[in-house]
Amino acid sequence: MNVIVPKSVEICTKLADFDYDLPKDLIAQQPLENRDDARLLILYRNTGKIEHRKFYEITDYLSDGDLLVLNNTKVIPARIRGNKTSGASIELLFIEELEENQWKVLIKSRAKLREKEEIRIDSKIISVNLLGRSEDGAWYVEFNKDVDIKRIMNKIGEMPLPPYIKRKKDSNALYSLDQERYQTVFAKKAGAIAAPTAGLHFSQNILKNIKTLGTEIEFITLHVGLGTFLPIKTEDIRNHQMHKEYYECSEEVVKKIKKTKEKNNRVIATGSTACRVLETVAVNGKAPQLSGWTSLFIHPPYHFQYVDILLTNFHLPKTTLLLLVSAFAGRENIMNAYEIAKSKGYRFFSYGDCMMII
């Protein structure tokens, strides 16, 4: 156990204040054999105290009457590789369906793109009309009406792993493993292009144990998109604009949150996505918007209204995710905890270990 004495509270607005160095060998490249074998760092945000546990011991920190909120979004196999008719390779990452046969897509190609492209995908020549660029660098594209993109995704699409997870072209076993493990066991509503990674640690057995304990479990949906993982490009963090992401939260969940807090029990948000949904709903007070698009950017200082405990992975430096956890626990607590996690060999990022901030 490590005890950290928090320093005086300081409001940091510079992006450089949320930077840290990380050895490459601490970036998890594949999941553990068992989901709930991940390490669990417990951080008490009021004192800075830290404990080191395993994820399967999470029930030691939950109580009868608490409410655990999970994000049931489902990652779609949104990355499709193909070739231009010239032979040049091309990679498409489907971000958002705009309307029938129209998508917002990130395109990676060394060859210059033309307004009307023909691409060979799944042994077929597909005509793609480039409609224009968005501010975030994506393309708006339109496919012929006889092209069923979702069918192609389900047939040959790959899980959209983040770029720090490396896969060789012949890594068929790992590609197959990613199809299962870059997905939570409770994934239900398809639409995300990245996993809500804090939820990856839950096994069906852990969920059963949590319910037996008397902790209630409820689900919200946030389809993880560009908003979650696009980098911050402004030196003053307050000038960053979050991209919108679609969410859903039922009236029943809101009622249970209020009931939980009235009884002085705790609401546990699993991941930044669940946290942002709950705080988005809370912002609207007595007339909450239960579904729609959220661009809520949580950074220090921020007053959390619904979330009492945050379950989260270890995040990349200078990201909106690191800012969110810093808002919840305090920047210096987080930076100290990250340094300790590094010294003890914790695994970082999507397939890495977990942190519970109490």
From TrEMBL:
Record pathway: tRNA modification; tRNA-queuosine biosynthesis
The keyword S-adenosyl-L-methionine is annotated on this UniProt entry: yes
Catalytic activity: 7-aminomethyl-7-carbaguanosine(34) in tRNA + S-adenosyl-L-methionine = epoxyqueuosine(34) in tRNA + adenine + L-methionine + 2 H(+)
Keyword S-adenosyl-L-methionine: yes
Superkingdom classification of source: Bacteria
Any Pfam family: Queuosine_synth
Name under which the protein is recorded: S-adenosylmethionine:tRNA ribosyltransferase-isomerase
Organism in which the protein naturally occurs: Candidatus Jettenia caeni
Gene, per the UniProt record: queA
